[in-house]
Amino acid sequence: MVTPATYRRRFWVGIGILLVLTPWAIRDSSRALQTMWNAPAFWLPETMEVREAYEEFRLLFSGENVLQISWEGATLDADAVDDAVTALQTLTTPDGDRPAFLADVTSGKSIVESLQAAPAGFSERESINRVKESLVADGDRQTVVIAAYNHRVDDRRREGVAMVRDTVAQAVGVDADEIHVVGSMVDGALIDEEAIRSIERFTTPSTIVGALICFFCLRSVLLTGVVLAIAMVGQGLSLAMVSWAGLNMNAILIVLPPLVFVLTASAGIHLSNYYLDALANHPDESPEQATVRAMTAGRVPCLLAAGTTIVGLGSLTLVQLWPVRAFGAIAGISVALTVGLLLLTLPGAMQWHGALRLRALRRRKQDRVEGQSLAHWRHNTTQSWDRFSGMVMARPLLVVIAFGFITVGAAIGVPQLVTSVNVPRMFPRESQIRRDYLWFEEHLGPTINAEVVVVFDDSATDDALARFIQVARFDSVLRKFEGSGAVISARTFLPTPPKPSSRSLAATVRKNAIRQLVDDPESAVRKTGYIAIAEDGRQWWRISFRFPFGEAIDYRQRMEDVRLELLPVLAEATEGTQLLFTGSVPLTTTSQDVLLSDLFRSFMTAFLIVGVIMILVLRSVPGGILAMFPNLFPTITLFGGMGLLQTPLDIGSVMTASVALGIAVDGTIHLVSRFRSQASAGVDRRTSALRALRQCGPAMWQTTVVCALSPMVYGLSDFIPTQRFAVMMFGLLVSALIGDVCLLPALLASPLGRFFGGKPAGHTPRATTDGGNLASEPSGRRAADAN
């Protein structure tokens, strides 16, 4: 048997562990933040076909690392365009501590001029037509500067992108805010910057909010201090684990600290409430006795609740996007560690709290009065639950049916869920990145990049002209396809081939010129990166095109339409010709599909495991299944509502379903545990449900307030994924509280409550307390409950 002295020894052991872990948490959490690097394209598994194609594409071409830069007045006639190119050339070579941020720089103006020169010799009008909507605007002479980013300095891309913008601004004499820059490097740099800003701006306010709520709930500086110390060390360790695992921080992992903090605070509040109830209900007992009573009653439910939370987090390891997997694993380990520290440290803190309280009371000679005051305060906090539960349990079966209809109605929206990992949508409409994308759309053309690569293997024709003609056919189809634009391929840089039947001298000269340009590594078409030869000898011909940026555009369907348009051309191509679809659009749509499918799979896995745990705890299959209904209600309601409203599910909200399931089950376990404890003492179902809610209700709303309001500070972030995570967690936890305090008590009090071990109403109770752990009741209240 655990003695009070054992709890005191464990307290000091726990404090020692905290003191040892604190420097590690501070140092290595800071190191983790310095590794911030977001690249959604690299979150997909390397073994996925779309990722393998993208990796090979990146090795051969540099188009995905291109920055497009423009401003008002950047036209084909403007000397400022040349000035910008000259200025950016300085960033292609290292300078002291500054690395070479850029690999190459050119402009639409330079490319148009090269198309007019020999051997192509196009007219200015034809040259512009060949690059319109990509390098030159359709209808005027607005153009762009193109800078190929040096991928070797990805770790400093925020600094590099800012330097590119400032360099161009100084060279052309305009304000930096008027320089518009788009491209994958810009996207990643801005996500990095906003993610770090979210942590720096909102972690401290979130912790303060959580601390104030904890103190309001526990009314004890010592208990609050212990819970907060463990919670803060836990959130620091969660970041440190990112560094220890050799991972980069990203936009998904930034919500680790607030999540670990609130989960730890929630467990601490639940455990402390058992102790405060024991003090209030048994004012004549010593603090040591109250601690033993609280730990006897609360240890198992707290361990079960922590276990289900860890299961919910652990289910995220089934998601294929590695940041989500890492999030689930690290959060689960962190929660296990902090709950272990709470169980090690809190019992000793309870005894110190009681001893200090008694000493203060004796000095004022108010121990008896204050003890009664504490009992009165605890009793007052439950009065609203009596009134509320009276309404819920007056017609419990009707309440269950009403919740059933709401859940079924919301479930209609689940198949309609849509996902989004589109980078510009991660920022508010007034943000710099959104302004830049919209400016490019208005002044130049579409901005959402996609790639089609025509691959010729060894069995394909060796004739460069024949290959070019086949690529030109694919190019023609894309140029005519409604909804796409900015098509660039080898056809852009090479003369139009003569008809195959033509045998004239001019036709022969043109054919030979095309063959020579295709085979010459120094030709414009090869140097601009639209033809490449892989290590295995296959020849890759790249066709770039773009879709317009729009909130309502279904890029998955657009890409499928493109594929269907190109299939007839592929069927007519020579043997050994293949098509690869890559670029940001296929990667984005694949990531969206993975998000949605893995969300469902991870949630169902967690739901089934937690359901099995509930069945084992209740020793009843029907009881375990029914106990999961209140925990299914919040997820179905919120996500079904998102589907009905067509609100996209993004990287900030994908984890919330499994996380909220683990948190929601906490309240279910505590409430069902108290209900069964009463029922085993012979109390009827309705009275057992009432008393269980009376005891657990305050702790449940307190933990909901902490878990919901503390992260809501992150809802003020300008970064949409972080903002949506906070809002979704708030909605899911409030819905979970409604399920636990309305639906679950109604289930327990209804005829279905027999599956939880309860007796029918009217059964004569053998006891009014569960081993002295439940709140004592006035005789009038007990008589009313018995009736």
Give an overview of the whole structure.
This protein is α+β, with helices and mostly antiparallel strands. It contains 27 helices and nine strands. The strands form two sheets. Strands 5, 6, 7, 8 and 9 form a five-stranded antiparallel β-sheet that branches. Strands 2-3-1-4 form a four-stranded antiparallel β-sheet. Helix 9 packs parallel to helix 11. It is elongated, with a radius of gyration of 33 Å.
Q: Which outline best applies? A: elongated
* Beta strand count: 9
Total count of helical runs of at least 4 residues: 27
* C-alpha Rg (nearest Å): 33 Å
**Could you estimate the helical fraction of the residues in percent?**
55-70%
What is this entry, summarized?
With 787 residues, this protein is of the alpha+beta class. Helix content is 64%, strand content 6%.
Which features characterize this protein?
787 residues; alpha+beta; 5-stranded antiparallel β-sheet; 27 helices
Layout of secondary structure:
Blueprint: H1 4-33, H2 49-60, E1 66-70, H3 79-89, E2 102-107, H4 108-116, H5 124-131, E3 145-149, H6 157-172, E4 180-182, H7 184-218, H8 221-244, H9 256-281, H10 287-314, H11 322-364, H12 367-380, H13 383-394, H14 396-411, H15 432-443, E5 448-456, H16 464-480, E6 485-488, H17 490-493, H18 505-519, H19 524-527, E7 531-533, E8 539-547, H20 555-572, E9 577-582, H21 584-618, H22 621-627, H23 629-645, H24 656-680, H25 685-712, H26 720-749, H27 779-786
Antiparallel strand pairs: 1-3, 1-4, 2-3, 5-8, 5-9, 6-8, 7-8
